[in-house]
Design a protein that fits this description.
The complex is a heterodimer of chains A (111) and B (114). Chain A is mainly beta. Helix content of chain A is 0%, strand content 59%. Chain A is built from no helices and eleven strands. Chain B has 114 residues and is mostly beta strands. Chain B is built from no helices and eleven strands. The chains are: A mainly beta (111), B mainly beta (114).
Chain lengths: 111, 114
């Protein structure tokens, strides 16, 4: 089955700087890779996703890149703001049904 | 309803007791998922339903865990003879259909086994 590794587990950056979170996956057949954000005490919510037919996708200050050959994908947040502080989860879709998540990254934005 | 609803939001139980956790998905969503989130850990897949059937139960940790879904809507996750290591947040999510990948999560049930 699919195995998703995520790092770092914690990340602290100064407000305004960029943050990068990386994930690797094991199943070369996986073709959908979402990122979820979970603020403290709240439910996870989808913030961006990418499919295997593209290498990069951007939405304002967040972007995701995918390297299918190396089986890794990354989340990039630019011009970080305090409200970006949260736990971020990457995931990979195994088959057509099962979304396998990474262990999460606790991102802290320091003012 | 407006979103995925889970109940109870918090459950404290004694070791050895059985517990039932309930998930009410968004109306019309055919796919339903259960995940477990232990303190500081990721989202561990437990089971998913398409309609009332559960094609993949591979994530259930032991035979003490079971889940059912009736009428293609509400699902219950039952843990029998609870153990302390079962303490976690149990999250339910739904999506319109299996091939629609975006998941809509509930707020979860915080289970504490004393």
């Amino acid at each position: 089955g699919e195995n998703v590794e995520q790092h770092p587990s914690t990340l602290s950056v100064q407000e305004g700087d960029s943050a990068v979170i990386k994930c690797t996956y094991s199943d070369s057949a996986s073709n959908y890779f979402p990122w979820y954000k979970q603020e403290l005490g709240k439910r996870p919510q989808l913030i961006i996703d990418i499919r295997s037919n593209v290498g990069e996708k951007k939405d304002q200050r967040i972007a995701v890149t995918l390297n299918k050959t190396a089986k890794h994908f990354s989340l990039h947040i630019t011009e970080t703001q305090p409200e970006d502080s949260a736990v971020y989860f990457c995931a990979a879709l195994q088959g057509a049904q099962k979304l396998v998540f990474g262990q999460g990254t606790r991102l802290t934005i320091n003012p | 309803g407006a979103g995925v609803s889970q109940s109870p939001s918090n459950k404290v139980t004694e070791k050895g007791k059985d517990v039932e956790l309930r998930c009410d998905p968004i109306s019309g969503h055919t796919a339903l998922y259960w995940y477990r989130q232990s303190l500081g850990q990721g989202l561990e897949f437990l089971i998913y339903f398409q309609g009332n059937s559960a094609p993949d139960k591979s994530g259930l940790p032991s035979d003490r865990f079971s889940a059912e879904r009736t009428g293609g809507s509400v699902s219950t996750l039952t843990i029998q003879r609870t153990q302390q290591e079962d303490s976690a947040v149990y999250l339910c999510a739904s999506s319109p259909y299996i091939s629609e990948e975006k998941l809509f999560f509930g707020s979860g049930t915080q289970l504490s086994v004393l």
